[in-house]
UniProtKB/TrEMBL annotation:
Domain Tr-type G: 4-231
Pfam families, per the entry: GTP_EFTU
Keyword list, A-Z: GTP-binding, Nucleotide-binding
PANTHER family assigned to the protein according to its UniProt record, in alphabetical order: TRANSLATION FACTOR (PTHR23115)
Signal sequence segment: none
Protein known as: Tr-type G domain-containing protein
Organism whose genome encodes this protein: Aspergillus bombycis
Gene Ontology MF annotations: GTP binding; GTPase activity
Coiled-coil features, chain-numbered ranges: none
Claim: NADP is one of the keywords in the record: no
Domain of life of the source: Eukaryota
């Protein structure tokens, strides 16, 4: 039986951690990028909470080695337990609008990345474009959002910080971006160390998981991978 393919855009403020998330997922979930595993190892170093992997550097180096056009938004492909997925890192609001509205990127869902690190994300004030990305996502017809609250290591894995950011962001998603927040899955992650990416993290044992409303009923899960597999394919498709 053929597997369903989904296109997922990774959106969020500059520096929120989009490339690191993509690099972490792609290098752990598939084998088609020859030499990527080695680049990941070359960009690893011991840090406070274990081995820190600079996945962003690894995938950026990989892309430039493959002579890809640095300005093109290329898909990063991976296989999850449920889907074949292409992830697209969206660099800014204009390219988000142009690529999705023209159909170049037919986005089925979005991972909205928000840094929990102090001075970034909600604390960046007007410099933070998280909600503008969400608003545009809704206008572009992307109804399914996974909210990844990133860089949790920099908060010392703070439950309070996560709850505060989740509550505030959901409030903004509802009020300013007109999202049905009962359909949003919120996950605290740290892609650098891999926490709550493929498996639940012992560093955030307090995390009870996400719950969301979907067509087939209520879905629940913990790591980001589950939340990605919780994105539902569009009804119009039959593959
Ligand atoms: N401590 C920590 N740093 C992180 C984490 N994720 C990303 N970073 C760092 O944050 C910076 C930005 O990460 P990127 O993944 O490049 O973010 P981005 O959203 O792709 O950035 P742009 O493409 O420039 O918009 C880099 O220095 C990363 O190493 C994390 O989970 N923990
Ligand atoms: Mg990036």
């Amino acid at each position: 039986m053929s597997r369903t393919h989904l296109n997922i855009v990774v959106i969020g403020n500059a520096g929120s951690g989009k490339s690191t998330i993509i690099g972490c997922l792609v290098s752990k979930l598939e084998g088609q990028y020859d030499g990527l595993a080695q680049l990941v190892q070359e960009n690893a170093h011991p840090e406070k909470y274990g081995t820190a992997y600079d996945y962003a550097k690894a995938i950026n180096e990989y892309a430039s080695r493959e002579n890809e056009d640095p300005d093109a938004i290329t898909p990063w492909n991976m296989e999850t337990p449920k889907y074949d997925i292409s992830l697209y890192e969206i660099p800014d609001l204009d390219s988000f609008h142009d690529n999705v509205s023209s159909g170049i990127i037919p986005a089925d869902g979005a991972i909205l990345v928000l840094s929990a690190s102090s001075g970034e994300g909600l604390e960046a004030g007007e410099n933070d474009q998280t909600i503008q990305f969400a608003k545009l996502a809704n206008e572009l017809g992307i109804s399914q959002i996974v909210l990844a609250i990133s860089k949790m290591d920099t908060t010392r894995w703070s439950e309070d910080r996560f709850n505060e950011y989740l509550k505030e962001t959901c409030h903004l998603l509802k009020r300013k971006a007109q999202y049905n927040i009962r359909a949003v899955a919120g996950v605290p992650i740290c892609a650098t160390y891999g926490d709550n990416m493929l498996e639940e993290s012992p560093n955030m044992a307090w995390y009870k998981g996400w719950t969301k409303e979907a067509r087939g009923g209520v879905l629940k899960g913990k790591p980001l991978l589950d939340a990605i597999d919780g994105v539902e394919p569009p009804v119009r498709r039959r593959n």
